[in-house]
Write a structure and sequence with these properties.
The chain is of the alpha+beta class. The chain is built from 4 helices and 6 strands; from the N terminus they run H-E-E-E-H-E-H-E-E-H. Strand 1 (15-21) and strand 2 (25-32) form a beta hairpin.
Amino acid sequence: MQTAPIPADVFGVKMSFVTLVDSNRQWFKSTCGLEDVDETPREPGFCAHAIFAPDAMIVPDATKDPRFADNPFVTGEFGLRFYAGTALRGPAGKPAGALCLVDTEPHDFGTRQITRLKKFANLVQAELLRSSH
């Protein structure tokens, strides 16, 4: 049986997540490259921003982005530098979470990669919707 490709491997980043976001937290439905973390508060989470972005949210270097430069995930031991995420929508089309790529090094992320990220997100979203029925 062939396994599905892992987004972190495909995009050459250290971590990838499927998050679900509620009013107070973001919790990790699936992770690659992150262990022993099931959830984080919503407030500092990048995914809380990505779910409302009109397109994929790309942060090439969080230390240089005024929205995130003081974020504890950037300044703390996690050391987040790169984030790319796109919203996952629930059955009614409302934002429910995000598929995201994360790294501790900055990255350039072009149009082709954004398109590929959205295709992965469509697969994840379809699976989440299918498993919710």
